[in-house]
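Two folds, back to back.
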Amino acid sequence: MNKRYLLGLLTLFIVGTAINSYWMLHNSAASITPSDSSEAEVLEGSDEQVEQSIQINEDIYDDLYTYVSNPQMISQAVIFEQELSFVAEVRGEAMEIESPDDSFVGEWYVTVYLLRDQDTPIYLNISSLEKEDWPQDGDVLKITGKPVGYLYAAYENKRMDVLDMKAVSLEEKRSSTQAAAKETIETDDYKITITDTAVLYDSFDDQTLIIYYTFKNKKSTIAASPIRTHFFFTQGENRLAHTILADSNDQLDSLALKNDLLEPNTELLYYAALKLVEEETPVEMTVYDDEYNVLSMLELAVTEAKQQNE
């Protein structure tokens, strides 16, 4: 059955748990840290290994990203009911499904998230695994599973469709959690260089950090900048949210693009606008690949950015 109905009070609990976990992510930078850094090893050849990993798994993550956002299309996908492996982070504890649909009797799920989509969960069915092997909140896992359909749920009068994935096996993923402070991050898919920063006011009159960067699309197809999917910005324990600027802001570099798609083998100047939580605390930029490996950790000074604008 490709489309199932999750009805009743438990539906609210399940989806509510996922959404509450999502808001916890936005309020805590620690929740995107994949594992204890004491367990991670940083090797001299790590950059080469990371680039190879991205090249091998690019199609898988592109496909999953598409169908996590559009799960109702999964039955027409090439990956439907096909075994595949990917890395995702667990949020919350295992949940037993209760529904008038008898096919859910004894079914247990846990919510997992792709690195590039921290907003939308995948519902991972772990019922066939031994209970002692069930994952825990915060685990980063190498998951082997099969997309088998999607689940239909409702929360606060809004519908939510989530990808239904049947787990075949789970393996702990030890991702690198330390990296050099690099202003240029380059993979097989893109090259981004941080060129400048400034502090302006956004459309809501809040102080905003502007990050100017060049983005080169190294793919063979049109692509968007990964600044919103693979780059995380924090002040202390707070993750910074992207915001918008007024069209008439004459202090913004007029040559910088916001989030326009870019043609292959093209490089242009872009900007990101991040609402500051504190006026003086530096902003930490952490860049990940799709397998939760850290590619760069860079501190951006807010006070210097403000002085440049005065």
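---
second:
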Amino acid sequence: MEVKRMPYRFDLKGYCENCPFFEPEVEKIEYTKLEDEFPKVQNIVKCRYGEQCERAVITVNREMI
């Protein structure tokens, strides 16, 4: 039995919620096998500025300690 994969995966952090700078970016990964009838694609949704925000959160948390 084949496991069905969701066509979308969300790679977002908690601090992305309600962020005024959130800008969605979609990365498409094709994982089709030779025997598949139709192409299969995994869409990964993330924020364009996610890495910058992550560094900012780490910096702020480090300064609070």
